[in-house]
Amino acid sequence: MSRPAEAPARAASSAHRLRLVMAQTDFLVGDIPGNTRAVIEAVRKAEQDHQADVVVFPELCLTGYPPEDLLLRPSLDLRIEEALDSLLQEDFAAVVVIGAPVRHGGLLYNAALVIEGRQVRARYFKQFPPNYQVFDEKRYFAAGSQPCVLDIRGIPVGITVCEDIWHDGPVEQAAAAGAKLVLNLNASPYDIDKQARRKSLLERKSRENRVSIVYTNLVGGQDELVFDGGSMVFDHSGALAVEVPQFAEGLFPVEFLNEHHCQPVSQPPLAEPSLEENVYRALVLGVRDYVNKNGFRSVVLGLSGGIDSALTVAIAVDALGAERVRAVMMPFRYTSSMSLEDAEAEAKALGVQYDVFSIEPMYDAFMATLAAPFNGTRPDTTEENLQARLRGVLLMSLSNKFGSLVLTTGNKSEMAVGYSTLYGDMAGGFDVLKDVPKTLVFRLARYRNTVSAVIPERVITRPPSAELAPDQKDEDSLPGYDVLDQILNLYVERDFSADAIVAEGFARADVDRVVRLVDINEYKRRQAPIGVRITERGFGKDRRYPITNGWKSGK
């Protein structure tokens, strides 16, 4: 790449102070020119608004994260070179630290680059590319081995990238090379307990190595992943000095006193959000970015009068605005008057477009056509599934005609045991609650009503039902959700065997039934829409089981 002449030397910041800005930014995967412009605009704003000496961006910010097989495209190197040339043309006053894929010696590395004076002054190659859960970095990246420590405005600064901080080695190398401040560039996806684990790790790493650590994290939704930001600064004693809001894009300044240990100036602590608030904000961000980044004007969903669709429509409105949400009630002879009343109340409370289309005529037409082949058989789940599939056809037709994304409403408990209909309630483009257990659905509904009451109380308290048969209740064919979700947590997220789950005190009959349902419904989940991941192990990128297999549950 070309190297413009170095800009004239600028006056250094105070010998005793350094202003650093964490750019907690939302990037679009694959849009390298757009992401480059976003970096330039952010640096300019950080210089103007905060007089930044250093601006630190998230991991792989030029490509967005995770770029997946875009990293294998033949034009990747050219596009990155063009992006870097654009950045080097800018006369930045600040030192800029960005993440990008860089090829060196024929190998591709997940790199951090330090830009100063229209030059790439230093680069660091990530030493621990992760290859677990949702991460596949060893498919693309070689591992670095060398530390990177350089003087920035009189302070010895070490550079690391994301996973490096979770392992012994990179931070220790930087500290041994004299670093007083370590910059850690991250693209760390959200799950319910993630921020607490990060804090515990950063406290230990900063205290043990006697360095301040700046943890700058990506924010935004990318397919099933949500990056929550939550960037932080810990001082050399292991104390949390600065924490910025999760799920919020922005430029967040921190000032360091360049005396002895490069001490960050502490800022007032943030109020600790409840688990429900945190998860709800993750779901809202995941929906907003998936819809907007993929260019959908609006969304449409079936509003049944049940709790899952009630929570989904509330999330959609909070993510996109009521004017971009359409709710459709599709009643049948088994739909209760309570469901009709509650669905209409929810739609009115949220101000969305609301339609009612009966599926009765379509059902009768299908059954007339099927009368001959079904002659002599008894009604069973076939007729129940037909109702769900007719609703799917209606929603997909509205999607095609008006360019709306269909949101499905199945929760994690249902997805786990196959309590859903292929090409019916599973028909759509994005499942908002896909990784939300049913017991958490109830908690989120109550949380949303503390913001404004939009979900009728009886929707939360009535026994859940698909209303595909007379007097049908979910618990007629499943253990109670309080039991089911505990079994699913042990089996799906923690890999307990059936015997081990029974040893935890659960009934053998319940465990065997649930485990069997999870196993035989893998084929359904492979055909389900993606959805926001909020747990350590969702159904998607980080749980991959063969559909065809002879594995026997038990041990």
Number of separate domains: 2
Count of β-strands: 21
Q: What is the topology, as strand order, of the major beta sheet?
A: 5-4-3-2-1-14-15
Average pLDDT works out at 92
Low-confidence regions:
1-14
What is the beta-strand fraction? 15-25%
CATH topology category name of the largest domain: Nitrilase/N-carbamoyl-D-aminoacid amidohydrolase
Amino- and carboxy-terminal Cα gap? 57 Å
Task: Tell me the major beta sheet.
Answer: 7 strands, mixed
Assign the CATH class of the largest domain: Alpha Beta
By CATH, the architecture of the largest domain is named 4-Layer Sandwich
Shape: elongated
| Helix count, DSSP H or I runs of 4 or more residues | 17
CATH level-four homologous superfamily name of the largest domain: Carbon-nitrogen hydrolase
Task: Quickly give the structural class.
Answer: alpha/beta
Helix content: 25-40%
